[in-house]
Amino acid sequence: MSKTTRTSHPESKSSAARFTALLATVLTALLACTEGSSSPAAGPAADQEKASATATPGGESDSGPAGSTLKTAVKGEPKSAPRHPSERPIPAFTGTTLDGQTIDVGSLLGARSVFFFFNPEIKEALSVSRAIERIHADAADHNFKVIGVGVGSDPGKLAAFVASSGVSFPVIDDSSGAITNKVQLRAPLGVLGIDPEGFLAFAIGHFASGGDLEAQVEADLRKELRMDPKQDTTLSGNQEGKHAGELMQLPQAPELGVVEM
Hints:
Elements: H1 10-53, H2 65-74, E1 94-96, E2 102-104, E3 112-118, H3 125-136, E4 144-151, H4 155-165, E5 171-174, H5 178-183, E6 189-194, E7 200-204, H6 213-224, H7 235-247
Parallel strand pairs: 3-4, 4-5
Antiparallel strand pairs: 1-2, 3-6, 6-7
């Protein structure tokens, strides 16, 4: 058996090296094209994954209706109309009533309130207090509270006045004048209406000396507090009701005679 001797040529080796390099270049280009073509497919998947990551518990993204509702809910409640620069809230104060209760102005916020400042030694105080008492009887139905503040006298005279006049609303003893000075009230009689936010809504400080003072004050307060006018229970009111009932009575129809044929 004869032996075959293989002889390697330098040109063969260089050709193989060039082929290997060319093959590596082609594979690299193919891989780059494959990655580029797969990028658009990965785009929607990535977007979907991002959308699912930011989705709300209801299954919708922030850009959908649920997202809009969520963003709207995060916003604060609409604020009330801006106040005029001249408007000021009632000063904060705390007072003790004749029966020992403590009233803080801050605890009254959220509902309307009527403060009746009066000197029990003034003649008009009795008529005005009776009008305030009539308003107080309907306070619960109209969402406001009435608080009296006795000023310019002593606790003994204030307590005697409250007992004799039949006042049932709480009355703070301000014989020291501390509350009156904070409110800067100079008149011996005054009614202040405070809105639910603690700002002054109306003030009555002038009371006519003649006429039916009690009825006039009650009418003014009912107007300011947007209450229904007090129903008239006098004799004339009863007569009006009587006439109204008579109008509803229909006359009887005449009897029809029988016609013989």
